[in-house]
Amino acid sequence: MLDTVVAYSVIASARAITGMRSLWLGTTPKAKQRIYYANHASHGDFVLIWASLPSALRQRTRPVAGADYWAKGTLRRFLIGKVFRGVLIDRQRTASDHNPLEPMLEALAAGDSLILFPEGTRNLDDEVKLLPFKNGIFHLAKACPQVELVPVWIDNLKRVMPKGQLLPLPLLCTVSFGAPLMAEQDESKESFLARAVEALQELAPAEEA
Amino acid sequence: MDRHTLLLFAGIGSLLVLASLVGFVLKWRAGAGSSPVIDNLNARIKAWWLMVAVIGFAFLLGQTAVILLFYGVSFFALREFITLAPTRRSDYPALVAAFYFVLPIQYLLIAIDWYGMFSIFVPVYVFLLLPILASLGGDSARFLERASTVQWGLMLAVFCISFVPALLTLDIPGFEGRHLLLIAYLVIVVQLSDVLQYVCGKLFGKRKIAPNLSPSKTVEGFVGGIALASLAGASLWWITPFNPWQAGLVALLINLLGFFGGLVMSAIKRDRGVKDWGHMIEGHGGMLDRLDSVCFSAPIFFHVVRYWWVP
Fold first, then answer.
1. Closest to A208 (Cβ–Cβ): which among B75, B86, B96?
2. Of A151, A197, B206, B254, whose Cβ has the fewest other Cβ atoms within 10 Å?
3. Which helix (DSSP H) or strand (DSSP E) does residue A63 occupy?
4. Inter-chain contact A162–B89, Cβ cutoff 8 Å?
5. Does B95 contact A169 at a Cβ distance shorter than 8 Å?
6. To which H or E segment does residue B288 belong?
7. Which CATH number fits domain A2-201: 3.40.1130.10, 3.40.50.300, 3.50.30.10, 1.10.260.40?
8. pLDDT, tens digit, for every residue of B136-163?
9. B184-222: pLDDT as tens digits
10. Which residue of B has its CA nearest to A18?
């Protein structure tokens, strides 16, 4: 009950603050198992993707989040655990023997879709569009070949919620969904990651001259 | 509402009924091969109904509601402007001040009728405050460009637009209690000029005025639209403190300003590589697309009326 109320108020405030527009450019919101992968500049990134989905899809779509940030404090734990049903991963990889992709593979095996930020961390550099992707997205694509990978470009949220600031600026954000891609058989890691990066960058607005 | 206001809204209502009929007939004649221009026209007319309804409702509620309405309008316009304007992370304090301090204070000053302050708050105090805030961020990259951008956004979206409700503060002898009609006059004449320039341009437009800035502005649209809208302004003298020829001249002035306002805003959009400021008004684009002409005409209209009609 409480988590549903909180979920809807988070979505409503995200929409009000960012005047969010969702553009389904390369696909439509479908009940297919997917990994939505997006550029990462703010802790609120997954909320915009989540809010763009119809509620039936939203209930089966779980954001992948770093345990180092989200497992701290009661409020964050409640939000990520109960409200967003996030998949927490260990970014520091403290125990070297276990596979850090394990929680994501479990969620995919259970039939859920994921929201993933393959840059691995927030990109805080105004001059760089995307940080190099981590390998995880490639391994997930190989392990679950039936899952579509949908590139999602989130524009402007970095300016709405700059790092370390509490008060959001009410600027307009756009969430653009591109055409799904999948890893081809025998595709090399380099080639797949390059394709994934390119598909995401194509959704970004043109650089100013 | 008094008789004049009712009459005015009845007139606007009949114009919109006529426009809707024309739009319907055009769509029906075009059949399945309806063109994007006709669809856009119908979307625009539909949005006009909504905009007139919102303004009418605010008029019904009174002056405070009208001030709040334009507060909202300024907010949406500022948000569209800053979204497209290039600012950096270090501009955060200046932008927080713009949205959470300057915008409410400007409208508060109008609500309490403090002319001496609301007329210089943004151009003097804020003009000096913003670069101070920006310098505290310690980032010198493109400093002048960034400071000017935020100042421009506030001047256009907050200062200029706030002069529409500022008309409520003018004490014109013999015009007591009818201030809302002055707002109606400004908005109707300037918007009618936009519409008539669009119509004349679509019907007769051949020679482009500024092909590099705005492909849709033509000499024919400019002359026809401004002339017709100024005549319409003259014929609306009965809702103003002006006599008919004064009303015509004032209308000509604000229509010319409105036209050039549209031109300036097109140049900014061109430079930023977009066609519209936003998407909130179906068929029209954003709030600023609809209000670019009002931004440029409102402050001058205010000061002209204040200079010649307020003793």
1. B86
2. B206
3. strand A61-66
4. yes
5. yes
6. helix B287-309
7. 3.40.1130.10
8. 888 898 899 999 999 999 999 999 999 9
9. 999 999 999 999 999 999 899 889 988 888 888 999 999
10. B79
